[in-house]
Amino acid sequence: MELYDLINKNKKLNFIDAKTKVTKTLQELHESLDIEDLRAVAFIYNDNQLPSIETFLNFYQKKYTVALLNVGLHDKFKQNLEEEYMPAYIYDPSRIEVEGYDLKQASKNISVFKRKAIRHYPIHGEIKLLMSTSGTTGSPKFVKISDHNLVQNALSIMEYMPITEHDVVPLNVPINFVYGLSIFTTNCIKANTIVCTDSDVLQKEFWSDLTHYGYSTLSGVPYFYELLQRFGFFKKDTPSLRYLTHTGGMLNKELANIIADYSQRFNKQFFAQYGQTEASGRMAFLAPDDFQDKGTSIGFPVKNGRFEIDENTGELIYYGPNVSGGYANNIFDLQDYNHSDKLFTGDLAERDEFGYYHIKGRIKRIMKLFGFRLNLDEVEVLLKNELGGQTFICISVQDKYLGILHQDEFLLRETITQTLKENLGLHASSLKTYYLEQVPLTVNGKVDYPTINNTIDKNENSSITIKKVIG
Amino acid sequence: MSTTQELHQVFANAFEIPLESITPDLEYQGIVEWDSMSHLLLVDELERFYNISIPMEDILEMGSVDKIKEILKKNGVEIQ
What is the CA radius of gyration of chain B? Predict the structure, then answer.
């Protein structure tokens, strides 16, 4: 595996587990688990602690196709995924048993579930990694990513990211998100110390670890930076910190200005980036020097990548060696890997007179809730299934809230919020529910999303409840 | 004097969950409703209800219901 070999060449690399304080060098993690070398699927439910990272590296180094998943995924969804893909191995620190699997001690401190009767089915040789497109909705849809994709993505990022061989890097974005994985791969190739952690900005441990380990960099989605701001982070210097990276949508103007001032005053670099799971990571970045003036732009494509804007639709199209091999919805889709360097991003973009690219909106029915993406069509199906088959319409409200529209006047908001909380872990405060008597339809009889979006937007702005207006 | 019952009601409002599900041993990230997003909502609710302003460094200490009682006390609100 080329990516693994690149990491393995970094002889200084070591890992610290922030919770247990265990420190291991890469050599100590190398082939540390007693597992066979199979061409089969392995599921890793990641909690970002050192044992998860160790298990991931061990499976990646062998012939396995590894699916990186969120450990917090609802058990029901885990079961569905496992029924569909029948993984030979499962690593899941949150469960003590899995039906049809034996718990096997793979090293002194790591146990994995091994399937009792391993099902052999064909998997294309280039499918090395499976990443979920939805994160939380438990849809069996995976993006098929090759080792080559990951290497190309890492190398293109390393062209601009100021990683040094002395750096101490926290995994403060989980590696089961493609952004977190990019941070992981690039720093494993070049940096010195990786701090495995799952603590967040609202925990004391995050702040004490920041000082204690002397983080060289921090990464996050806009919400992460909003929290940093609330903590007064940008008012003072954190001497160990050299640069910050971001992805997952635009920062609000005020925050962007604060960060621009902070970078200037304390000599930090801020890298705004643009990426997608389908591109195995990053597609574009904005150079730190441009952030002050061009803060709303995604900048330019990464090395070996290029953009095109579709003349008719305005859709941003990306070309590059990191474009993944398509989707898998079931095991049969694992038989092929689509070789293409072209990706329809689903985003609407414009290129300004200086050549900078700007994202103007989305074509796909996908929204970012706190930086992480949510497929609105999948949420609609989930609600329909869970709540007796009635129709729900899900929209993004000002890119901040998930809006849920329904036609049942007796349906309680609590029922909806409870369902989404149980299934997707979404908090009620990020949900807006609306009752409407009639759903606006297009001439073809389809749900007229643009009209609904406009109406809701207008009313949110004028703070009149939608109930009065549409209902 | 404020009561534990009132405090629990503030929690229930912030997390949009029933009052009965608020227990004294509740911890940050111990339930899905108490995450990094709702934590700040809880702070807002507490500040509004008790008419106080909680300093940022205290917010980091608010890891459980008991800890929050201590923080409130520090900020002049005694819970009986």
Answer: 11
